[in-house]
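Hi R.,

Here's the input for the zinc ion complex you asked about:
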Amino acid sequence: MDFLVLFLFYLASVLMGLVLICICSKTHCSKGLVKGGAQIFSYIIPECLQRAMHRLLHYLFHTRNHSFIVLHLVLQGMVYTEYTWELFGYCQELEFSLYYLLLPYLLLIVNLFSFILTCVTNPGIITKANELLFLHVYEFDEVMFLKNVRCSTCDLRKPARSKHCSVCNWCVHRFDHHCVWVNNCIGAWNIRYFLIYLLTLTASAATVAIVSTAFLVHLVVMSDLYQETYIDDFGRLHIMDTVFLIQYLFLTFPRIVFMLGFVVVLSFLLGGYLCFAVYLAATNQTTNEWHRGDRAWCWRCPLVAWCPSAEPQIHQNIHSHGLWSNLQEIFLPAFPYHERKKQE
Ligand SMILES: [Zn+2]
Ligand SMILES: [Zn+2]
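And here is the predicted structure with zinc ion in place:
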């Protein structure tokens, strides 16, 4: 029983930690938290270990490498191996519909296909040859993106909505973010594959979670486990309650219950991120713009009056042309803005 409580506490802590990181990453308190955390660690951990950790973190998050791709495939492989090896057979014995059981495999095929495309597709790298073309795709809003600005690293003129990726060391057209899970930038030319990848990954995690839950519920109902009794450490007789039932299932099907816990947490995290990505696509914003737009909002707050150097600037999303047009821009290549104006 203690193990179950600790396990649930661990899952809740991981989930809460991730939610807190997501919330803090949008606020300025994250910098303070990171600084404070680093200071505490510097007192506890030996210097040589700190240097090794710093090197490892730098390698993982600030250089192009395949570590997260390997981790991604290992985790996905483990879930699907468990699904095929145990759950699929059990569900077939319980006469679950075969279409229902094959759905995760169909999602896996689409997911792997879009994953590969996201990894290998050029996100919209700006070069000397295409610099001029990209300069005419989006209008400059003169708040977030200014005309005639050069990238200090590439020395290329920066088109509106572009950004230099410090990990890949190139400027990307309609830069969204650098994704370590696909080891590539997400930009104008691969955002559509990324969205399909995210959608199918969420759907496959949710489908495996639903099948696992359906199997366990079916098993409990079929074998009338709720009617059973058990004797506790003090010799008292009890009717099976929910907590004891979960513990019983965990001990009988440890791999399936562990996988269920993992895919449930994953479904919520990916589902939340998918909603955010769909919101950005529907409003024609990139993650980079959403993040920078928050700072533009800060300049407009009442505290601006106390800061003589701050200039109140209002960022307005000038690229949104309605839901259909915004989605079209994700799934079809964008036109230079003067051509788009002619079309409208
Ligand atoms: Zn650059
Ligand atoms: Zn990148």
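One thing worth noting: Confidence is low (pLDDT under 50) at residues 297-306.

Cheers,
M.
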